[in-house]
Known about the structure:
Largest sheet: 6 strands, mixed
Bound molecules: zinc ion
Oligomer: single chain
Strand content: over 45%
Number of helices: 2
Order of helices and strands: HEEEEHEE
CATH superfamily: Copper binding periplasmic protein CusF
CATH architecture: Beta Barrel
Structural class: alpha+beta
Strand order of the largest sheet: 1-5-6-4-3-2
Distance between the termini: 36 Å
Number of domains: 1
CATH class: Mainly Beta
Amino acid sequence: MRRRIWALTLAACLALAACAPAASATTTVTGPITELDAAGLTSVRGFSLRDGQGNTWTFTVSESATDEDGRPVNASHLREHMALGDPVTVQFQREGDTLVARRVGH
Ligand SMILES: [Zn+2]
């Protein structure tokens, strides 16, 4: 029954072809962190990363953003990534001119 409802919802989405408006679609980008804007030891205001094409992406970190374990994004952890050049994968949404990171994993 549950599965059937899901299938119907999916069909409705496909029919409308616009369940997620482009403005709030979630996008993913991966690359090493180049800059970190930390507010203290643990909290992160934002950061930049460079993707495989050499583009720099600058993100604001949403307060509800989580890492791959579902914990709040941690500044010292991201600092480690930056120091090691270890890439992170960011899921973000565009809000006006701002890219808001929702999930930062690796
Ligand atoms: Zn990590």
